[in-house]
Amino acid sequence: MRQGGAVVTQTTAKPSPPTAPAEDPFFRYGWRYVLRPTPDDPQHLEQVPLTLDDVLHPDVGDFIVHSDRHETDRMYLNAVLRARLEASGAAIVLSDVRIAWDIPDLRPHGPDVMVIPGIAAWQDWSAFDVAVEGARPALMIEITSPETRVNDLKRKVAHYARAGVAQYVIVDCIERGGARRVRLLDYRLAGGVYRRRAPDAAGRVHLVIANLWLGVEGDHVVCYDERGAAFGDYATVVRQAAAAEERAQREAMARTEAEERAQREAAARRCWRRVVLSIEAPDRRHIYNQSVICAAQRDQVMAALKARQSGHETPNRVPSYLMVFERLFRSSPRRRAVPCIAEGLS
Fold this sequence. Notes:
Residues 1-22, 292-296, 314-322 and 328-346 have low confidence and may be disordered. By secondary structure, the chain is α+β, with helices and mostly antiparallel strands. The longest helix has 44 residues, at 234-277. It has a 6-stranded mixed β-sheet with strand order 6-8-10-11-12-13, sandwiched between helices. A hairpin with a 2-residue loop joins β12 (179-190) and β13. The chain has helices at 52-56, 68-85, 130-133, 149-163, 234-277, 281-289, 298-310, 318-331, and strands spanning 2-3, 6-9, 30-35, 45-49, 63-66, 91-95, 98-100, 113-117, 127-129, 139-143, 167-176, 179-190, 193-197, 205-207, 212-217, 220-224.
């Protein structure tokens, strides 16, 4: 959401313990609502400014202020990675979701983007608990902001290594003279500590789990596939992801319909076989000989034969059912060959 021209991130509201008072009338890091009962209102919530430590270890419900450029890059990365990984089930991608670790004394974080393999189904998490879910991120991406940059460049390097995150990438945005310069920092876990790797000759960082390359064009980030083709801007990626999801849904629906149709046809063949076997042998041979009928008219013939089998019709009416077969075959406008339900009968 936006507040006074700035972009803020919000999760589900939840009262949190009071934070030490901070002299920050402009809420430069953001804010949280703390339960502070008053004589008139026992449920009174007071808006309290966040500290730098609060931004590092957020509570569910905190509002953290970001620039518009920061949000554009975050949404772009989230969209590209989701399109790349979630359709295949390789991993889930979460953005601005609080993560609680299974490491003693390591407090929760709120990364810009994280990629987590080993999760069967995506849920609408506002907080992800590693111990509960039994999975941890393989990739963290943080986009720095001028006033909280120290958290991403220093403290989270130690914290994410301790948490066992295989790769930590920092999109470091440096504001100078009104211009925004972006550099990429790539940390890989080795022996329980991070080793920084230099970008490749094109200045790009390999995002291992997604097999994508992250680069910089002007003042924003761009992802490239294994052929070096760039993914478009956020709007383009979202449209492509939506189109891919729609295609996948259509294909899944077509497969389901084909399977259901095959099951119905198999059931119909079994039923017809039982019905035809109940008819006297000479008449059954005649049915076999006249069994090329229009598929759309099977139900009509089947109903007639079911009536014959159920005893609602007398045996002397058998020739009328043979006439039904002959009439349908001769009058059918399409005459599409249909596998005979009595095929193979003698």
